[in-house]
Amino acid sequence: MKTWKIRTGTVVACMLASAAILVAACSNNAGNGNSNASSAPSKDGGAASEQAAKPKISVSIYDRGNVPQEMGTIGNNRWTQWLNDNGPVEAQYVPIPRGESVQKLNLLFASNDAPDVVAEFDTSFRHQLYQQKQILAVDELVDQYSVSYKQLMEKYPEMKKAATKPDGKMYEFGRVQQLMGFQALFIRNDWLKKLNLSVPETPEELFEVVKAFTENDPDGNGQKDTFGIALSGETGGAINTMFRDVDWVLKDGKLVRGWEQKNAANAFKKRLYDAGLVDKDFLADTNGQKAQQDWNSGKIGIFVGRTIDPVNLTTFYEPLKNNVPDAEVIAIKLPRSEYGRFAIGVNNPVQMTTVINAKAKNPEAAMKYIDLMASTEVGEMLRYGQEGADSVRGSNGCLKPKDPAHFTKELSWALDFQLLMSQIELEPCAGILSQLDPANPLEKDFLELVKQNLEANLGEGVEYAPITHGEHMPTLPDDLSVIRTNVSKVADFYNKAIVSGPAYTVEQAYAEAMDLWNKSGGEQLESFYSDWYDNNKDTAFLAKDMWKFVIKS
Amino acid sequence: MKPSLGERIYLIGVYMVLTVAALMCLLPLVHIVSVSTSSLQAVASGRVTLFPIDASLEAYRQLIDGTPIVRAMWNSAYITVAGILFSMTFTVLAAYPLTRSYFIGRRMYTFAIVFTMLFGGGLIPTYMTIRSLELINTYWSLWLPGLVSVFNMLVLRTSIENIPSEIDEASRIDGCGEWRYLLRIVLPLSMPVLATLALFYGVGYWNSFFNVLMFINDPAKFNMAVLVQQMIQSQTMLSQLNALGSSEQLQLSPEMVNAAAVVVMVLPMLVVYPLLQKYFVKGVMIGAVKG
User: Fold this and answer.
1) pLDDT in tens, A303-321
2) Are A458 and A328 within one domain?
3) Whose CA is closest to B230, among B267, B257, B200?
4) Structural domain includes residue A37
5) Are residues A73 and A170 in the same domain?
């Protein structure tokens, strides 16, 4: 009798449990189906017959977790609806989290789930897709189906150069920008004036200026609490650039490893450190945040910031002016070292961003979508919004946001739709020079800085330190990638040399670095880069091609 | 009895070490709370250390207005609560039969279940399995794979085995059946362990990041862990790579808003832990000792 009860009870429980699982699974399938239908742009009500005719594709879009709740989600919002209403295709957007984008895309490609049109900044990932034959060669597609992108390519033949892979075919789509000063060497001019110094033109003069900034109390508060310069973050990087320490340099027409330059740069840094002119804990400041905070509170005299976008004003200039209203900042050229005078940093004028999945069912539709996104009308719409509702024409005739809060809410997060928009076609309105308002005193100052930095990076006598922008360097095959990871530890030897005083010199660091380099197979890297340069120096996108896009002022 | 000098020195030493450890855990949290309640100026100048400067709730306002954090919070809560219910139910249902000596094949089942602890299939096979079950983009892809943690189940099993067999025999004599025994006697007696396991599952589901990232595509369904990571990542990536296009910079999330997001995410767990702490200490010990 009892076993009956146990048995019945158990059987009933099992049935209930399985029923629950079945119900949940089935409702989720239906729910999945429903959510798929609703996440696709919801215009099934109106103009149904037109929608039925549009081919469907899937497009990847970065998700940065910053779309305000009432605007929807990155895959389904005002702008995706506008694009689908006014475009030739119906695009279903697949959000890819920006932080783990390569991993997620890898997963999607491995399980054959990847979208038809894929946008990804990481050049080595796109190259990996090419090597695995996961993306389409697009020469014929552009020829047959493209209008606006083909026009862009005719106007800027470098686009094809940058998009061509080793097998000679074109695989990528991208965007063109003017070449501008990206990074800037800011210096406190009020300190220079107070201490009767002039702008440093050589590393020696730079050393003297930094020494004076640190020791002679330029902020006049009676305490020795200032630093002349920072060694962490991009400021430390600029010191490397000053000596052309960019890893791969040209010597007698061949691309070789620049050890001499690296030693010179680190010797200079060591001098600065030994003389107590920089923060002793700079190695702990891994992302340059501490140096940024020191600059903001007026405790550093020389600092590298950026002048490419209005947001740089709020990052590099406004906090300083709030804390030290009398601060005067100018943007100067990098001092001329024995290796030459170099630009602090410029942007990548021809940036590739997008590829088409080899398994796309409708490559023609994908090409038409790319054409749409590359056109100036769409670019303007997604950048400024609807004229009247979101933006107005300023006094210089350029579109600008009607109201900052409204702009932040409705447009600021839509930047990832502009990965194919060539900003150069929207000039002179799109660049920072037209976006700052001279009536605002802070923006007027920053406008001056932008212009000074243009001269510092693009002016006479200044050359680009590496042979080309990092995004245009060749991608290493996997086995060489491993070697590169192993030899990246040479940076630790040099850092040790900087901070260890007389106990460990730069020469010792160099000896250990060469040892590691030879043991790990560094000469394979050398022959890879050397061969690449020899074979490709006429067809690759190099610094001289970058300089064709210098901003026309 | 007064402790001897040796014992006192020992006690002082232990207290010092514990205080230092506690401070090391506590101070970063205090710093984050201060950063989230200070003004932008103070944070950008690096003046905020332990206490808020120019206290303001601006960061929280920006957080709620400008990011989908409220929706993410509801998603996190939903995933956690439902996850705890499912996981606890099935953990109990798995652990109890394994304690019954008259369960045929008990040894074999235990071995099979423990065997799954040894290795997993890897990311891509797991993804393809979940996809073929059509669970992608649903929360079942989070609940189903992690439904029963074998470790937790074994802890529960050990704790049930520790219930004296006299109670079992007495209840059988009085006519108690299996279900009644489970529900009326075993579970009430295992309250500490159950609370502990619920807490473990809860924290696991609340913090589940990688699974959500990989299996959920719709940003409306993201939970707080993914959202906060995205916000912080965009700031970190920015300062690392020079090659980023200028447009990337505009998506920088101010440090304050990140700090506010972290506080909002950590707060529920902080609140729940002390409430369940008395069960926690008892529960872990009971499950650990056999016999």
Assistant:
1) 999 888 887 888 889 889 9
2) yes
3) B257
4) no
5) yes
At A473, which CATH number? Answer: 3.40.190.10
Q: Quick one: tokens of A475? A: 């991608």
| Residues forming beta bridges with residue A256, ordered by sequence position | A249
Q: Please answer yes or no on whether A28 and B135 come within 8 Å at the CB atom.
A: yes
**Euclidean distance between CA atoms A146 and A361, whole angstroms:** 18
Please provide the DSSP assignment of A276-290 as one string.
T-S-TTGGG-TTSHH
Instruction: Report CA-CA distances (Å) from B199 to A266, B80, B91, B154, B270.
Output: 52, 10, 13, 16, 12
Min Cα distance A296 → chain B (Å) is 5
- Give the residue ranges of DSSP H helices in A438-477: 441-458
Q: How many domains does one find in chain A? A: 2
Q: Which residues pair with A119 in a beta bridge?
A: A354
Contact A413 B245 (CB under 8 A): no
**Same domain? A94 vs A173:** yes
Minimum distance, in Å, between the CA of residue A457 and any CA atom of chain B:
15
Residues A207 and A333 in one domain: yes
Residue A265 lies in a domain: yes
Q: Are residues A200 and A228 in the same domain?
A: yes
Decide if A218 contacts A191 (C-beta within 8 A). Answer: yes
d(CA B179, nearest CA chain A) in Å: 8
**Closest residue to A309, CB basis, from B134, B243, B246:** B246
Nearest CA among A427, A392, A425 for reference residue A407: A392
Domain that holds residue A362: 52-177+349-407
Taking an 8 Å cut-off on Cβ atoms, the answer to whether A69 and B44 are in contact is no
The ipTM estimated for the assembled molecules is 0.71
Do A124 and A158 lie in one domain? The reply is yes
Q: pLDDT digit string (tens) for A393-452?
A: 877 778 887 887 788 788 888 888 888 888 888 877 877 888 888 888 888 999 999 999
* pLDDT at residue A2, as a whole number: 58
Q: Are A230 and A239 in contact (CB under 8 A)?
A: no
pLDDT above 80 for A146: yes
Partner-chain contact B219 A74, CB within 8 Å: yes
Question: What would the DSSP string read from start to end of B171-190?
Answer: HHHTT--HHHIIIIIIHHHT
Query: Minimal Cα distance from B228: which residue of A?
Result: A65
User: How many Å apart are CA A79 and CA A83, to the nearest integer?
Assistant: 6
Are A103 and A138 contained in the same domain? yes
Within a domain: A361: yes
Task: Find residue A387's DSSP bridge partners.
Answer: A391
Out of B177, B236, B242, name the one closest to residue A470 (CB): B242
> What distance in Å separates the CA atoms of residue B36 and residue B40, rounded to the nearest whole number?
9
Residue A362 belongs to some domain of the structure: yes
What gap in Å lies between CA A359 and CA A111, rounded to an integer? 12
Residues of chain B where predicted confidence (pLDDT) is lower than 50: 238-251
Q: How far is CA B104 from CA A3, B97, B98, in A?
A: 15, 10, 10
Question: How large is the C-alpha radius of gyration of chain B?
Answer: 24
Query: Does A356 share its domain with A338?
Result: no
